[in-house]
Amino acid sequence: MKGRLQAVAVAGLAMGTLVFAWVGAAAAALVMLRKGIAEGGYVVFWALLPAVAVAILGADVGPLTMLLGGAVTALVLRDTRSWPMALLAAVASGYVVAGLLYGMAEDYLASILALIQPMLDQFEAQMQGSMPEIGGGDIAAVIGASTVLWSVLAVMLARWWQAMLYNPGGFRQEMWRLRLPPAMAVGLVIVMLLVANSGTPFRFWGVMCLLPFAMSGLALVHGTVGQLALSGGWLVIFYIALLLLSPLWMALVFAAIVDSWIDIRGRLPQRGK
């Protein structure tokens, strides 16, 4: 926030790595959130250079897609001041990335598949059963979903930084209130079902539509704990259960869908501050 040089330095240096690329994406998103597309676009442009270098020399498009997806998501959040719209922008970014890779980068997807094929074969041997054949469309779906996830996480980190600097406690309140509108929830479900049933190459593409529900479900849990002034230990128990019990994720998605229609937090007493 002190100037262009500092922002470009942080974003550019971080984007040149795989470990800290998310920090670079968050730094660019912070400038986009605070100063808009002119200053944010300047930082994104210079951060693109190391991200493109990693994509070409390191054969990893992750930093590049994270940077662009995060920038789009941050811009939408700044313009609309709506986390649901920002999540929708992240999903759209994921689909664009997956579509471009599937349509124009078959060799790249094939190289990734060849890299992970030994692990898939070993997993199939351990399972002692046949697994569905993995193709380029499945790899594109994974990269698209990763773009959605890391774009949202980068913008969340940027929003937290922004709140710490200019609006202490504001990020927590935003997360507590995050809820998908009913029309958006229905639209995401319809897109998910249509894409998942569009053929074998697209069978996993619907996962990208699930991520906004997962985020909304997590916001529901945090908001409920906050409103009821419950101990933070409940969140610890919840996240441990989330790690150990995979069906809990689907329960979280279902709760987010229900919440979009009946506003669960709006029906709870306001005990927390």
Automatic annotation (TrEMBL):
The keyword Transmembrane helix is assigned to this record: yes
Signal peptide: none
Top-level taxon in the UniProt lineage: Bacteria
UniProt KW keywords: Membrane, Transmembrane, Transmembrane helix
TM region(s), chain numbering: 7-32, 44-77, 84-105, 139-158, 178-196, 202-221, 233-258
Protein name: DUF2232 domain-containing protein
Source organism (scientific name): Spongiibacter nanhainus
